[in-house]
Amino acid sequence: MITLDELQITTAEIYRGHEGLVRTISPSPSGQWLLSGGDDGTVRFWEVLSGRCVKKVEVGEAIKCVAWNPNPNLSLVALATASQVLLLTPPLAMTDKQVITATERLLSEETEPNTGEGPVTWINAEGEELLQGIRVKIQHPKAVSMVLIHQVSRRRSQNPFSRNKGLVQSVAFHPIRAYFLLATQRSIRIYNLLKQELTKKLTANAKWISSMAVHPGGDHVICGSYDCRLSWFDLDLSTKPYKTLRHHKRAVRAAAFSHSYPLFASASDDGSVIVCHGTVFSDLLQNPLLVPVKVLKGHVITHDLGVLDVTFHPSQPWVFSSGADGTVRLFT
Questions:
Q1: Going from the N-terminus, what domains does the chain have, and what CATH number goes with each?
Q2: What is the DSSP letter of 185?
Q3: Is the whole model's pTM more than 0.85, yes or no?
């Protein structure tokens, strides 16, 4: 277990290449590769240690979110724009043959014909898109305001909620249970997907929630807000924040937990990432211990925007961040 004295963080690598805002980043399960997406309409694959851009995919519209499939036995990434979700396979050099075979089997499974009557249309990529690694396109016929859950193996999409009670800001699957978390402007709703019912509603002391992250253990949630706050919820304790941290001077844009260390981080328009030590005890009578340990700086505030996304390396106590200045940074 890492101690606070051992947590000496410096800027180890700067990944340059994007033009404009870099809104979203995601590391591969192995931690060897990093995926980034920005307003320049490109998705880039980086080698983490060398900082080399291995591949650039031209999408043609601003990238809102990217995510690497957390299953190491599949080589698949997803990205979202304003109107569609794309499924890509990373460059072959990043993947071993067994994983490639399993991924191809998933993508080539026979499915029912797409009638186009559902909320979205599933389309197999062709031509130049296929050469770039784009395999499947999930297209929305109009602006997206609903929450949809997509099943890749069956090429099906469903809306598990009759209607959204507020503007959706962030969504997440529970790491252990069949729960789904949905953050709107003022609250976080936790749904049981098996029973398709609301199990809990968390109320944040915030004017407008911007982001959300779930602790790997599943019993704690953090959410950032545009009024400079980061709220920690203990799901076994209360539906109100256990603690609210006000360390940032401007809007909090993103929040993340480490899956290997008792660390969490927040990214803000003040140009900084704040890393905190969050100890969760097995004794349920003992409250979590939250200690800020490091302020990471380096991103240049651009057009009044600072750090737009933050995430941890899957196995090391390293932090990745992306900003409005067009850079992605690694702090080790």
A1: 4-331 (2.130.10.10)
A2: S
A3: yes
